[in-house]
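Weekly sync notes, structure subgroup
Attendees: PM, AL, DS (notes)

Item 1: joint prediction request from the bench team. They want all two components modeled as one assembly rather than separately. Inputs as received:
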Amino acid sequence: MNARRSPAARRRTILGLAFCAPAILGLVFFTLYPITASFYYSFTRYSVMKPPVWVGPANYSNLLQDNLFWKALWNTLYFAALAVPLGIVTALGLALLLNLKIRGQALYRTFFYVPSIVPLVAGSVLWVWLFNPQNGAINAILRPILAFLHLGEPPGWFADPLWAKPAIVLWSLWGVGGSVVIFLAALQDVPRELREAAEVDGAGVLHRLRHITLPFISPQILFVFIMGLIGAFQFFTPAYVMTRGTGGPVDSTLFYSLYLFNVAFADFKMGYACALAWVLFLLILGFTLLLFKSSARHVYHAG
Amino acid sequence: MVLSRVCRTILGGVGVCLLLAVAVVGCSSGRKRADSGKPLVRVWHVWGGTMAEGFRKVCDAFRADHPDVDLRTVFAANDLATNQKFFTAVAAHRPPEVVFVDGPQVASWAEWGALEPLTDLCREAGIGEADYFLPCWRQNVYKGEVWALTFCADPNFGFVWNREAFRKAGLDPDRPPTTTDELDRYARALTVVKDGELVQIGLIPWAQYGEANSMFTWGWAFGGRFYDPETDRITADDPAVVRALEWMVSYAKQYDATKIAGLQQGFGAAEQNPFITGKVAMMCLHIGGVADLARYAPNLDYGIGYIPSPPDGEKHSSWVGGWCMAIPRGVRDRKAAWKFIRWLCATPEGTALVGEATGLFPGFKASPFFAKVRGRKRYGQFLRILEECRHQRPVMPVQARYMRELTRAVGAAVYGRATPAEALAHAREVTQRELNAIRRGE
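Output from the run, pasted for the record:
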């Protein structure tokens, strides 16, 4: 093949590669190498300061007996199972509302997007205050309502192991602005004539939503779902900030990434941490493939 | 031909970038000597906030005293959870010449190979056990080597009470509780509930600078022990420690753990300190807190004494914490680094200055600073505590893990997820397993 190529074609190839070189080198050194290295380290005992020692699959088999691993996995699945669907429903609802042609539309859109650009740490600190069981704004609103309905005291949120995870799920909804933008863009592509035809035929709002709007934006829903799931599995910053890295109270917010971080950077068990990371990667991969497979039946690709 | 010229330009550009990168990396690190030709001592310290000023004063004095050393300080926080920067530097063979290490971490860092032993330097300088408060010295000796010297010996803790709150509750502000029974009674009197919400609490036993430090504090006060160096056994569920946790949990039962946690979430640092805002009437105070209280609440009327203990416990119980200074592994010029450490941690003039500038106590017994503070009202009490102090946190290489497990155990017991005995047995088991793994060379 090469022998038959003209010198010009070869030069073009070289030139093309040269243009790609910065990106390729970056990928090789800063992505491919760390990934490969972490795979190797996951079969070693490695404290960073001393050279790694090969231990075979011991790190992986130890995982199975590690209570905290299971606890962290459970917390993460709990969070993902609640936060991802809730996030999609909220984002979709907001997008539909923000799509209404009303005065000040641009203002509302900005308003709902702003939280997404607040730095995570600042946002976390803010929510700790809002969720403060005694003086927080949320309970200040809830308390009279619950008292009126004779439903007792408002929850302790981050002060209560039972309510800490739901509180974080609620917190996560504050950042749906990004998904709202994606849905808004998708909504612009829903053919107007279809909706109008359906309306003429007597289809109500819900019918139009279900049979026209949702199918047309289903690829975007799938995208947000998958990205949301990956984000949920890697959820870290708010849990770290709100609990100062402890995952408290009583490990109720010890998410997978937080545990991984503690193993790696407090105990300096890098080998074990790498094994944790690979298990996380496989979990995310598995769930994503599952979603892709099952989506074939639900996702409508126009055109 | 144009193409190949473009091609060459780009390849050349990439090459220049690489060369530049190599040059920058090569120049920015590994220099032993500064431009001045004097030996360079780079110090990674942990003193931010109000302490930063004091530490700068100490460093300036050292510079004036040692014009032959080029001292450079860098703020690089490290604690049980954030020390990545330092370890990365050691692993990359580019450590600073001097690093601050939290006392209970010395053994771990030594075990991990992050530090150089100071044993020979101490011997040459004639520095030994007798020069330091015993728990301070013990904290820095691991596997027969000295790994660090104590920069500050924190007598943990002084027991403080809000005299105004005592008067309001009808208690005698000059008679602080000395036994845990008295403490319980006072705490009840000092707790104020309004509309079902706690607005003031007498004491939160597990909120003495974190759950783990609280467990150490009360565990020792109850006469317990956490580690047996003879047998290398973790003893978290020592009967007296279990009794201490049971006593702590009694507060959770009486006042509701979630309610207390709710109150705690309103706590802050500095002027929002719960002792200043009047939300907590009695607590254990770290020595650094004296300066904070003077700064943020100069009119706060409070007393300071010893930690109460049960009759069969340890009277005047306390333990030392505090920061130590060490030389990281891979430092080539240990002599210059040692000069700095020795001056700050083991000379009369250096330790006196550290005391004056930071308000913290040196670990060096002969420091003239102690003569000055003995007569002072609050620092004098801290000095008495330090002189009677018997404990340091266990000197073994899984200290961070042990503290996390104790935190976990206290949390589980306080929230009723496990009995104190179960929770502590679990902490013992997990920590011992980690310790055994290290002893087996894993």
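Discussion: Chain A has one domain: 63-295.
Action: AL to compare against the crosslinking data before next sync.
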